[in-house]
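Deviations from the work plan: none for this task. Representative record:
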Amino acid sequence: MKVEGSHTIPAPRERVWELLNDPDVLARCTPGVSKMEAEREGFYRATLQLSIGPVKGRFEGHMEVTDSREPEAMTLTIEGSGAPGGVRAVGHITLEQEGEQTVVSYHGQPQISGRLAAVGARLLSGVAKKLAGQFFNRLSEES
Amino acid sequence: MAKYVGARQKRVEDPRLITGNARYLEDVQLPGMLHAAVLRSPYAHARIDSIDTSAASRLPGVVAVFTGQDFADLNPLPCAWQAGGVTNNANTPRVLEIDKVTHTGMGIAVVVAEDRYAAEDALAHIEVAYSVLPTVVDAKKATEAGAPQLHENAPDNICMTWECGDQDGTDRALGASDVVIREHLTNQRLIPTAMEPRGAIGSYDPGTEEYTVWMTSQAPHVMRLLMTAFVMGIPETKMRCLSPQVGGAFGSKIFLYPEYPMVAVLAQKLGRPVKWTESRQENYIATTHGRDHQTDFEVGALRDGTITALKVTTYANLGGTLSTIAPGIPTSLYGSMLSGTYKIPHLHCQVYGVYTNTAMVDAYRGAGRPEATFVIERAVDLVARELNLDPAEVRRKNFIQPEDFPYEPASNLLNGLAYDSGEYEKALERALEQVGYREFRQEQQEARQQGRYLGIGLSSYVEICGVAPSKWVGLPGEGWGAGLWESANVRVHLTGKTVVTTGSQSHGQGLETTMAQVVADELGIPIEDIEVKHSDTMSTPFGYGTYGSRSAAVGTIALYNSVQRIKEKARKLGAHMLEASEEDVVYQDGNVFVKGSPEQAKTIQEIAGAAAVAYDLPAGMEPFLDDTAYYDPPNCTYPFGTHICIVEVDTDTGRVEIKRYLSVDDCGPVINPLIADGQVQGGITQGIAQALYEFAAYDDSGQLLTASMMDYAIPKAEHLPHFENSHTVTPSPVNPMGIKGIGEAGTIASAPAVVNAVVDALSPFGIRDINMPLTPQAVWRAIQEAGR
Amino acid sequence: MQKIPITVEVNGRKASREVEPRLLLVHFLREALGLTGTKIGCDTSQCGSCTVHLDGMAVKSCTVLAVQANGSQVTTIEGLGNGELHPMQQAFWDNHGLQCGYCTPGMIMTATKLLEENPNPSDEEIRDGLEGNLCRCTGYENIVKAIRAAAETARGGS
């Protein structure tokens, strides 16, 4: 499975980069976050409450920025699990300035397991798109 | 004078089923019953580093939480049928896994709670730490260098390597053939999907130290034996097993599953009955799957269409661990049957049974024979195609002829057993005539000129039924090491009302009706006077259950034999009552009379009464009409027939429409045409489903992507054609009723008929094969690739 | 969990219970009322084994919460024939429209509504009408036949 998309944020690239690296902003913008803390720079632990089609539940996980080229690209490694199953993913994000705006593109191939994979798989890319949309909309508001 | 056998007798079991009064496992409620839910591994290959159940244990409604350690004193489940004559590197599941899992869905903990909602809720609070290991899901890749290794005792993930036939002779014959055709076939993984999911209820009586286990099983006696003697190490006399009404099985309920001994032990540990029933998602990831073969074959032929040799190599995916009879399916029931209905002088088959990080694979309706039939029926069509011959003609040319029986195929069928009887050409001709074969070929030509693509597919199958003979399965080295005979008890009570019990089991096939029909005719009493009881180890004689289309050809023959002895005793007692000499009296239609004087008869009801009150019996005769028979057949039976499918393919969308589907089956004399046709129709449907719709898809990490009915494509009414069913009748010499079995025929015959039809339709594109399932996407893609 | 009082008229009898808000109608029928004729065959509303009539409509009772049925009338397979065989039940019996019987209650409940909406359906319309009900045993041949027969009976045919 592949998850990809892009969103335009009405702010310059440096500002968007700043937002994407601010744990408080991330906590506010990520849908379903009930808890999020930066354990060290670029390493976050989070608890999320999500529902993907018939699969609902609490996920615990962490996200690490494994490659960072300010202000144009970063690579994230995400691992999470909960009763409905688990997710492991490596995601790539690029930021391109277009005039006064910034186009943020992302792509990744999450590996999912458990009920999430069994029942939720075919809904997941749609849900991921929706969640990403919510995230970037909120990020736009923050900018 | 048969009144019931052969009649379209309405089923006696139906009134309870159509009114909602049948009691399935899920409907059984016991006082004080607790509910269990199993935590299953989300990973296909992982070490279990730790399990913390403390939070789950504290939740309201939760009675207890157990892990594999709590069942460490139980043995792993047994694998009862291993491949014959070779080493099997067996690995079987435990009641709950302790340190490692090899496929998703393996149980690692169980919550027992006051209700199912509480038990399911608590699963989310069990914390498990896994070390995830690399996975392999493809059987062939699993044997290659560098593949993740699942079990220490199975190098290259190979459970067993098995062969049949003659390799050198086959190679020589291929070398001497005019043409040799090679093809790779995939027989994709399927999920049986009985409408009723599996379940079990355990209870324990501390006073008698006896367990009672209710379960959704096709073979309660075998379950009891395997649970007590093999898993729990207690005498089998300390357990009673019952199958209540079973809602379909198709093989998936033959096997011993971890949850059955689990509920028994939980009931003993907790002092209350414990029920477990699976969700549909559990059914898809934790109940057995079927098929999953990758096969390469070479078929040799002469220019005139005579088949000279068949060489087959198959990788059979067995899953992460072995289910109860898994290795027997792709070997004895597959390789041995590859010759099909044809005289193939040289045949060799090599099978690799392989472990992968997928659910266990075991018998699913047809079990080995659909896979074999698919290979040979595709091969015959490919020969016809290569030589530009009519596929019907190639079949005719190679058929085993009626005078060739008993016929022993070159596969060395089952250590020397032989096909019993057959008129293969007769069934083919009947089918061709009914379908209007010549006219269709004309219509096909005309349609092509209008840009419409019609196709016709033939499938002339033979199968092996009545899996039982001790002469075969009882042989040392043949895996079972025990004959799978069947039993029956007949008791004619004081008033002539008769109770029949069988060691076999009914879960939709209508045995309560067909068995009663046989008894009614033989004994000469109304069918209403007969009760057929089954599925309770306490009240039925030991028997091996229902599978391999054996309930008619084995179970019903046991019953038939028992009734013959009852009749003989009744005849002797009747003679005594008539004050006649035994030699002079006959038993006919429920009456005993002196030959030539039927007006002075004693009825079976009078005789049963006399036998029961017992104050005037012939010297040495025991009271009561009661007999138990155990029937060990001398051979299996070999039903056969021809199925024909006509399709139209929409080449723009790839959609396949079945225009006609026609079957001519020969299962020997038909006990009940209504039921036999129902079996054929349901069987055909499961084969059509394989050909066109169903596929259990795993991703590379071993996650089942088709784990619900949203994604696993069970056909709906709108996807299926009207079926045209008929029969020829060639009795089997194996048993006194001549019956062969019908439960699996439809599934065995139908997938190749459909695929042959689609390939025939698309032959103008040069297409010679498409992998099942022939979804619109697969067909469309094949057309696009052929066009390039 | 907080419980909510509901009253549902099931097969002509009023039943009042306090239920969890998340309780499914099918579990209410089977477990609270002991009406186990209604079956559960999947988790995802595909199979139709749990079909019942709710205020005159065929619904999958695994997709309805018990609280949503508060104040409603429900008919299950047990109540369909009012103590006798409903013509649809009779037609399933006569035409061998069932094998294992597990899908049968839901199939019959759907079929009766199908004929109410279309008393003279073609085979194709019957097959389309069974879109939400799965059977794994029969290949639907005799189910279609049974429904056609029931339609003929209802129209006064032989």
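DSSP finds 19 helices and 26 strands in chain B.
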